[in-house]
Amino acid sequence: MPAYMVADVEWHDAAALEKYGEGHSELLAKYGGEILAASKDVDIIEGDWKFRQLVIFKFPSKKDFHAWYRSEEYAPRLALRLKHADGKIAVIGDPE
């Protein structure tokens, strides 16, 4: 079953975001991941949800998501994002 990652991220450094984005799609693809949607224009239908930018990713499975997220290739990008952005991330799919 596919796994979906939902991310709400606000970058504080445009240069860091640009560096993070370089080759990002290719790295995602290596683990079967793809970006389905990304936008700052989010319509909140219910509740008090303060999105800054919503990004929805799809992976073949939770196992593939975790392989990407914990990979040596992603580690420098993750460190960059954690240093220069605030975010919330969740992933759903079948248990591993």
Summarize the structure.
By secondary structure, the protein is an alpha+beta fold. Helices cover 34% and strands 30% of the residues. It has one domain: 2-Layer Sandwich (Alpha-Beta Plaits).
* Low-confidence blocks of residues: none
Shape: globular
Q: What is the H/E string?
A: EHHEEHHE
Strand numbers in spatial order across the main sheet: 2-3-1-4
User: Structurally, how many domains make up the residues?
Assistant: 1
Total beta-strand segments: 4
What is the fold named in CATH at topology level? Alpha-Beta Plaits
Structural classification: alpha+beta
Please give the largest β-sheet: 4 strands, antiparallel
Instruction: State the CATH architecture.
Output: 2-Layer Sandwich
CATH C-level class is Alpha Beta
Structure description:
The protein is α+β, with helices and mostly antiparallel strands and 96 residues long. The protein has one domain (3-92): Alpha-Beta Plaits (2-Layer Sandwich), CATH 3.30.70.100. It has helices at 14-21, 24-30, 62-69, 75-84; strands at 3-11, 34-39, 54-59, 85-92. Strands 2-3-1-4 form a four-stranded antiparallel β-sheet. Helix 1 packs antiparallel against helix 4 (75-84). The radius of gyration is 13 Å and the shape is globular. The mean pLDDT is 93.
